[in-house]
Write a structure and sequence with these properties.
mainly alpha; 4 helices; 106 residues
């Protein structure tokens, strides 16, 4: 139980800090890259040794390559969506004061 209190407390502290002062784009990018590195490290340490024991290096290579391709595809799609104009007039003809969530629809 005590071990669960540390991450829970840090989560609450991080939420309070983010509510008090919104992180800038540089810090947000740094934190997201750190989180991606942690996920990659977990995969490398936990999953890859078991897969290599089962003699499946081809599957590992194909899966990793597909994952990288999907991430590049998502990046391209995200940049493409940012260039498109908003279509809120088609989806929500009311002003943003009535439908505050409608301004997020592209």
């Amino acid at each position: 139980m005590n071990f669960a209190l540390l991450p829970a407390g840090m989560m609450v502290a991080g939420a309070l800090l983010a509510a008090w002062r919104t992180p800038g784009p540089k810090l947000r990018s740094t934190l997201l890259h750190f989180a991606a590195g942690v996920v990659f490290a977990v995969v490398a340490v936990d999953l890859l040794p078991d897969i290599m024991k089962r003699h499946a290096p081809i599957e590992v290579g194909v899966g990793s390559s597909l994952g990288v391709a999907v991430m590049f595809g998502l990046r391209y799609f995200g940049e493409w969506m940012e260039k498109k104009p908003l279509v809120t007039n088609l989806l929500a003809p009311c002003p943003p004061q009535c439908c505050p969530g409608a301004c997020w629809v592209r």
